[in-house]
């Protein structure tokens, strides 16, 4: 599907719908170039799940932000692996424990931790089509 920023909630709902179809998946990676809208889409997903809007921010420096979905109280972890130097940093912070917790894990810049990702991971790809249009692919 293609969408604009004004249609970001439709893209968020597409991701959430896929997760509802596959309740055994709790890890979602976001593959896109810098500035393509990964954090914006993750914020829209979190809002749709009931996270307080003011609580959602990019974890670029903290690496992981934790949110709670209002309706269910479910934990959501938002990872930004851009600043990780190697896979050992991810292991040291216990990334596998987050994945095994059953909490929803939303991961930006996942390449460095790819060997640690569960086999049942949803990959969200955002491909810029223009300055305002993005293509969303789920697999």
What tags apply to this protein structure?
139 residues, alpha/beta, Rossmann fold, 7-stranded mixed beta sheet, 4 helices, 7 strands
How would you characterize the overall build of this protein?
The chain is an alpha/beta fold. The protein has a single domain (2-138), classed as Rossmann fold (3-Layer(aba) Sandwich), CATH 3.40.50. The chain is 27% helix and 27% strand. It contains four helices and seven strands. It has helices spanning 8-21, 38-48, 87-92, 95-100; strands at residues 2-4, 27-31, 64-68, 75-80, 104-108, 121-128, 133-138. It has a seven-stranded mixed beta sheet with strand order 1-7-6-2-5-4-3, with helices on one face. A hairpin with a 6-residue loop joins strand 3 and strand 4. The chain is globular and about 40 Å long. The mean pLDDT is 93.
